[in-house]
């Protein structure tokens, strides 16, 4: 009979869960990980980060070839045809390789995979597919799922969620995206590049809620230039199937006349919510909010000794890399070490074109708190590499404390923003000032020089504008 008692059981094999399980095993703890999917990796690897990035990359290549944008570089095409089935196949291949890689890592590190759904039966016990398991430590890492829009039924044929948007069998003529956040804009970008007309409906007055105000405004201009129709300050009141399509009824957020929008596909993308409902947390006595968020301290301990929580089920941004860092930290805390995550330095990236990335605080939040700041900005229009590549949309914005010069936030719009933000995050992790960045030699010609110049602009003047 298989042993059912462990030092650590991690519930969920997404980025937070599988990393926590591997790290716990590396630290000498007998570890199991519960996962109900047929493959490991959670939402991120199976129906989130990875497949969406595969389609974003492929659709960008198609758009470049199809638009004639490469002609100025001497690259000319005849007719360009879309093979959507091949695009989906390449996406599936990437997912299979990466999820299979986690299974190999589990075997390498002797992490036991418990297949099925987990539900608590007590403070140190769970049931998985009818078998009882116990552990000294149980980590809740069940991630999140799509937030439903009240009154709207997802069928993943015409009215779809993010998972459905990754698997459309043909390019819709008109896609309506409900929600102007990260996921809606990324998936809208995929189908826009492949030929769809895309309308984004956002309840708030700007897209990308929570991001720096200047970034939001500039991004909206870029998306509109790309052909997106963006309807901000607009409320969706109903979505109904109509023949082979749907009718989206909207009205001004402040109130006013209703309007019907016809669509072939409607993507509901209004956020995500924690996956905690089916865990029977009440049987373990774990405290959760009315929205299902698990209450955990800075060390990821819940109110019940021996039960921990990380990732999307606890407060903070729902980001895979946040969950991964928390997975390492919680395993180290369980092992008696000191696991720490600096939640003030968690970068975020929107993988549109150009990419949008940020780390730290926004100008609006800092001013609202009465913190005096100095700001340096540098446009990619003045960056030599961006100009050579004819890729000049966007800018870098560095925000520093006016008294100490310590960098408090960095915000970037650029084709390479997702890669560039790592330098800013590392600088902030070490408490860098804008002067530290400004006086660090950056290779020429690179996009990263724009970060150096923006930092120079905090306390003086950039050279190239």
Notes on the structure:
The structure is a single chain. The longest helix is centred in the first third of the chain and has 26 residues, at 84-109. 32% of the residues lie in helices and 25% in strands. By secondary structure, it is an alpha/beta fold. The N and C termini lie far apart (72 Å). Strands 1, 2, 3, 4, 5, 6 and 17 form a seven-stranded mixed sheet that branches. A five-stranded parallel sheet has the order 8-15-9-10-11.
- Major beta-sheet overview: 7 strands, mixed
Radius of gyration: 24 Å
Amino-to-carboxy terminus distance: 72 Å
The global form is globular
**Portion in beta strands:** 15-25%
Structural class: alpha/beta
Portion in helices: 25-40%
Q: Whole-number average pLDDT?
A: 97
The count of strands amounts to: 22
Question: Stretches where pLDDT falls below 50 for ≥5 residues?
Answer: none
Task: Work out the helix count.
Answer: 13
């Amino acid at each position: 009979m298989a042993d059912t008692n462990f030092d650590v059981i991690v519930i969920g094999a997404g980025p937070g869960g599988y990393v926590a399980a591997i790290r716990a095993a590396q630290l000498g703890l007998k570890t199991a990980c519960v996962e109900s999917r047929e493959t490991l990796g959670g939402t991120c690897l199976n129906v989130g980060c990875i497949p969406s990035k595969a389609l974003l990359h492929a659709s960008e290549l198609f758009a470049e070839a199809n638009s004639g944008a490469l002609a100025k570089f001497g690259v000319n095409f005849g007719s360009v045809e879309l093979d959507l089935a091949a695009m989906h196949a390449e996406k599936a291949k990437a997912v299979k390789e990466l999820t299979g890689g986690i299974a190999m890592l589990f075997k390498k590190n002797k992490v036991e995979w418990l297949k099925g759904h987990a539900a608590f039966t007590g403070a140190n016990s769970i049931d998985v597919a009818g078998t009882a398991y116990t552990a000294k430590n149980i980590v809740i890492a069940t991630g999140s799922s799509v937030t439903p829009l009240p009154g709207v039924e997802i069928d993943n044929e015409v009215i779809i969620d993010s998972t459905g948007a990754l698997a459309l069998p043909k390019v819709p003529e008109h896609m309506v995206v409900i929600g102007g956040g990260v996921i809606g804009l990324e998936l809208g970008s995929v189908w826009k590049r492949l030929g769809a007309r895309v309308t984004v409906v956002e309840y708030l007055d700007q897209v990308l809620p929570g991001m720096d105000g200047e970034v939001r405004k500039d991004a909206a201009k870029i998306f509109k230039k790309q052909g997106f129709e963006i309807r901000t300050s607009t409320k969706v009141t109903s979505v109904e199937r109509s023949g082979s399509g749907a009718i989206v009824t909207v009205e001004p957020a402040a109130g006013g006349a209703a309007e019907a929008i016809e669509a072939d596909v409607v993507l509901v993308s209004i956020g995500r919510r924690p996956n905690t409902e089916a865990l029977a947390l009440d049987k373990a006595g774990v405290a959760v909010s009315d929205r299902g968020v698990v209450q955990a301290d800075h060390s990821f301990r819940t109110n019940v000794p021996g039960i921990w929580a990380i990732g999307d089920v606890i407060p903070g941004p729902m980001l895979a890399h946040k969950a991964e860092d928390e997975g390492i930290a919680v395993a180290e805390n369980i092992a008696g070490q000191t696991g720490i995550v600096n939640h003030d330095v968690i970068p975020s990236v929107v993988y549109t074109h150009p990419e949008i990335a940020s780390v730290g605080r926004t100008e609006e939040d800092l001013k609202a708190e009465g913190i005096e700041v100095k700001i340096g900005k540098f446009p990619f229009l003045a960056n030599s590499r961006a100009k050579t590549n004819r890729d000049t949309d966007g800018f870098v914005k560095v925000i520093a404390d006016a008294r100490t010069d310590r960098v408090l936030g960095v915000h970037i719009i650029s084709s390479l923003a997702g890669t560039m933000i790592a330098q800013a995050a590392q600088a902030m992790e070490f408490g860098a000032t804008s002067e530290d960045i400004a006086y660090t030699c950056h290779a020429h010609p690179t996009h990263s020089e724009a970060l150096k110049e923006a930092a120079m602009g905090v306390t003086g003047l950039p050279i190239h504008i």
